[in-house]
Amino acid sequence: MKTLGLGLIGCGNISTTYLDLAPLFKGVEIRSVTDLNAELAAQKAESYGIRSEPLDAMLAADDIDMVVNLTIPEAHFEISKKAIEAGKHVYSEKPFVLTLDEGLELVALANVKGVRLGSSPDTFLGGSHQQARALLDAGEVGDIISGTCHIMGHGMEDWHPNPDFFYREGGGPILDMGPYYLTNLVQLLGPVARVQATSSTPYKTRTITNGPRNGEEVPVTTPTTFHAILDFASGATITLGASWDVWKHRHDHMELYGTKGSLFLPDPNFFGDVVKMAKPGGEIEDLPLSAHPFHAANQEEKANYRTAGAAEMAQAILEGRPHRCNGQMALHVVEVMTGILAAGESGAPVQIKTSCERPAPLAEIDATKLLK
User: Fold this and answer.
1) 193: how many CB neighbours lie within 10 A of its CB?
2) Which of 24, 36, 115, 30 lies closest to 68 in space, CA to CA?
């Protein structure tokens, strides 16, 4: 198989994950890194035996076929647009962009330039979520009527040394964690047709309780609690609770209620864990872990296969077929998220204008082909 050369734009914490895990996959090779902090990029490059270079040099390099945009969310649109204009395929970290208009512009530009556009999260390709997809596609719990999802915690200020961006526009639980949950719902159930929501901002400041800024107060300028209802084109209605104002709770991450049973999914921020199911009159039972390769623990007793989405996109480019973490699905998820934000502010339902196909399932044989 041919190999596509990758350039990483942004050398923050997530870049280490890509640099560590990319060697697991066929078809991709990270060849350079860039960052506004040239010294940081140089240090990262030296650690991994690759080159560091300015962004313009990366975008002009003949051996870079695709860039992975790891910049902060506010910069995703600008950087991705510049890379597309340079004729590079682009795979972005989540959130894809922060507005529907930005996403529409990128998708249109990529089509004009003849390049591929993709975005994380790729965790829905994990063993747990593909096991759930196979059960749904086989009709094991019938048609999904309703369900619940919960993203609950008390924010990042107790562990993140610089949590400011989580609490300003472009942050909040919907844009930060929502992509994992919503992308997984879309790959399981299909596109969303309408959203309703309420939102609130109970705390106007947050106090950092770790690191060199311990005790410093951070202003909160975006809602941190949401209660949303998602009406899917399939007819399913899902309740989504997302909050950084909760100390403790007892909600499962994701529950789907069908005409023939119920399905309980683990955290969609991760690739592999136990899926549970209950049939009429029966108890909730743990299902055996599937033989899917992305169910296997490979890092600190967890299944972590981040970079799978970029690698699958590269393989799809080489094979001339659609890729799974595609721009159209990412665009739809962005509209759903911004729709939740708008509905939370106005109190009025928001009709979702975009749509997308469910990505093809990533069966065991497909995942195996991605791995070296």
Assistant:
1) 16
2) 30
